Amino acid sequence: MQRLYQLRRFACDHPDLSPWHITLDHLVLWLAGHEQWVPNTRRANRGALRAFYAWAVAVGHLERSPAAALPRVKATRGLPRPIAEEVLRTAVALADDRVRLMLLLAAYGGLRRAEIAQARREDVHRADDGWHLRVHGKGDAYRDVPLTGHLAAELLDQPPSWLFPSPAGGHLTPAHVGVLASRLLPAGWALHTLRHRFATRVRAGGADIYVIAELLGHRNIETTRIYTRLGHDELRTAVNGAA
Questions:
Q1: Are residues 116 and 187 both part of a single domain?
Q2: In terms of domains, do 54 and 91 share one?
């Protein structure tokens, strides 16, 4: 879903060109032209382009991929940026019922915007330990996330089918979910920082990195480390222990 969004953005920036007439120069200039992108964003867009043109060669649309020679983009380790609790409380208080539920799923369930967009009332199910939400994650993978009693009650109160239906049919796009949430958040905060908040709070509750990775749907533990901010008291205790 994210790669589809990236490819659509590239296509919108080149409305007069067929994808089969794109050259390496077009790709390089597009990736370099977004100065506001952090390295990891540029790296993800490069990956989307390479995957698309590799597919185009495989099915016979092109003989050679113009993206094959794209320069590598070095990944950087991001820093956890959990949303401030007072900012979250204000946003939840100001939101309408639909956007409020989006915020709760990100902050208290750790869902990505694409996972929020695809959530259905039927995904809520009961297990031996309580209510869970079946989350449809990246790469057609899914995971079951335990729900707090309050969030379970909110979801069970929704009508059947998509939690966030689109007027055009189906569900809202991930991009639209992000836009709706961002309208209620101050500058510098985005829906993804609520996911950081979820991971950080789970970590503060004593969960190890493997539990957090499972809840977030991460395959790589190094990715999970980006989401979890250690508290100052933990760091001080560690330093004092070395004294």
A1: yes
A2: no
Tokens read off for 208: 């190890």
Same domain as 188, residue 101: yes
Q: How confident is the model at residue 232 (pLDDT cuts 50, 70, 90)?
A: low
CA 79 to chain centre: 15
Q: Return d(Cα 211, Cα 209) in angstroms, integer.
A: 6
The pLDDT tens digits for 220-229 are 887 787 777 6
Give the residue ranges of DSSP H helices in the chain.
2-12, 24-33, 39-58, 85-94, 97-109, 113-117, 149-156, 174-182, 192-204, 209-216, 221-227, 232-241
Same structural domain for residues 171 and 51?
no
> Three-state SS for 165?
strand
The closest alpha carbon to 145, from 222, 212, 230, belongs to 212
Same domain for 214 and 104: yes
51-91 confidence digits (pLDDT tens): 999 999 999 999 999 999 999 887 666 677 899 999 999 99
